[in-house]
Design a protein that fits this description.
This protein is of the alpha/beta class. The protein is built from 9 helices and 12 strands. It has one domain: Luciferase-like domain (TIM Barrel). Strands 1, 2, 3, 4, 5, 8, 9, 10, 11 and 12 form a 10-stranded parallel sheet that branches. The radius of gyration is 18 Å and the shape is globular.
Length: about 290
């Protein structure tokens, strides 16, 4: 797919505003829109409903939940939703997937709390089931966390649905290298910039151990910040600090991330999402592509 550029959006109840951000992102030449998935937040709409709506209001740009909350979305149903969105969009849907993070909020919706080890095991089992259900034929499976009996699979659009994990811990990163199609590195508030290179190394080692080509696993750097209208400031990337700088600053920062192995970049805008999506797509992305050749 080459280098990809995207923007993250909040699934606000202000549907008109969300549609406007998506339209601007598409017009600006961006490749992706990531939609946050927090079903327990009353001020948000369901991420998959928002994605379906935005698919209907766009023509080219791709979408992914950033990232889908697996404990709240049974694997068999998630498989059907993903293949349906892929088919409805002509292949513009990919599946960002998380094992579960905000457990107090998750359990408020009646779901039993899992330990980190249990959540990771459930995620690995879910991935195998998802892929089985994206092939023709009937599937019967009985695992520790999920089971189906004679359930007919549904093929997505040609090209299929990729699974991008929002991994943070070492075991989760190793699972990414073992079975996933991509790593959507969490924003620095959850995984500081200084940990990203190590994360890529863990993914690489696990991929090799599993007999996979590490280069086949896509890596997304998700960066919170603001593309300002002024000149370069010499931005230093550290900890969880937002990136705030001019276009050249962003080109320098994203080019350094590319050197660490990232081939996808998702902006989490601090301010006006429409204007930030425009600047990221029209001003930053072309210069990064030129820099990377």
């Amino acid at each position: 797919m080459g280098v990809l550029f995207g923007v993250a959006v909040e699934p606000s109840v202000d549907v008109t505003r969300v549609r406007a951000v998506a339209a601007t992102a598409e017009d600006a030449g961006l490749d992706l829109i990531g939609v946050q998935d927090h079903p327990y937040v009353a001020e948000y709409l369901d991420a998959f409903v928002v994605i379906g709506d935005l698919i209907a209001h766009t023509e080219r740009i791709g979408f992914f939940p950033d990232v889908a909350n697996l404990p709240l979305r049974p694997a068999a149903q998630l498989a059907r939703v993903a293949s349906s969105l892929s088919l409805a969009s002509g292949g513009r849907f990919q599946l960002g997937l998380g094992a579960g993070g905000y457990w107090d909020a998750i359990t408020s919706m009646g779901v039993e709390r899992k330990t980190p080890a249990e959540a990771l095991a459930a995620q690995e089992e879910a991935i195998a089931l998802l892929r089985a259900l994206w092939r023709p034929g009937k599937v019967t499976a009985s695992g520790d966390w999920y089971g189906v009996r004679g359930l007919a699979g549904q093929e997505p659009a040609p090209g299929g649905v990729e699974i991008w994990l929002g991994s943070q811990g070492k075991r989760s990163l190793a699972l990414t290298g073992k079975v996933a199609d991509g790593w959507a590195a969490p924003i620095p508030a959850y995984l500081p910039y200084e940990k990203w290179a190590e994360g890529n190394q863990i993914v690489d080692r696990a991929a090799v151990e599993a007999g996979r080509d590490p280069k086949a696993i896509r890596r997304f750097a998700q960066v919170v910040g603001t593309v300002t209208g002024d000149g370069a400031r010499g931005v230093k990337v550290h900890g969880d600090a937002p990136v705030r700088g001019g276009v050249q600053d962003w080109v320098d920062v994203l080019s350094r991330f590319a050197e660490d192995g990232f081939d996808g970049f998702v902006l989490w805008p601090e301010g006006d999402a429409r204007e930030q999506a425009r600047r990221f797509g029209e001003e930053v992305a072309p210069k990064v592509r030129e820099r990377l050749g």
